Amino acid sequence: MTHRTAPPAPATDLDHMPPCIATMRTTARQLLAEDAKPVCPEELETLRLALRGHIQLLVPVIEALTLGLPNDDVPKACALACTREAKMRLRLGVGGYPPVRMSVAMKLARSVNALCDHYENLTKD
Q1: Total structural domains within the chain
Q2: How does DSSP assign 101-124, residue by residue?
Q3: C-alpha closest to that of 56 among 88, 90, 81
Q4: Which residues contact 33 (CB under 8 A, 6 or more apart)?
Q5: For the chain, what percent of residues have pLDDT higher than 90?
Q6: Of residues 122 and 9, which shows the higher confidence score?
Q7: CA separation (Å) from 50 to 5, 21, 75, 94?
Q8: Residue 74 is assigned to a structural domain of this protein
Q9: For residue 7, which phi and psi values (nearest 5 degrees)?
């Protein structure tokens, strides 16, 4: 009887398809900008889902970028702390009342902004 193993997970190819940081920041800005306009419940849900997707895309990319850095590297420690916080925020529920839903979406938007900052810092030449 032969035993099969799962194929290895594909490696993250950071040079091939980098995340679109500008798009991610634009999405987050819709909730965080000082002059942000109120959003209807349907648009808020769309933004929440988009922000979750941005986080899910950025976290493994940032974790991969930190792999070659020394363990005592401060930018590495900060980036990994940010990824842990973002993962925690992905576990937040939708929220039952409009203010709670807005609060959850704004927390996701802040995580997206922070992850974008770390991505840019880790990919500087």
Answers
A1: 1
A2: HHHHHHHHHHHHHHHHHHHHHHT-
A3: 90
A4: none
A5: 72
A6: 122
A7: 34, 13, 26, 13
A8: yes
A9: -65, 150
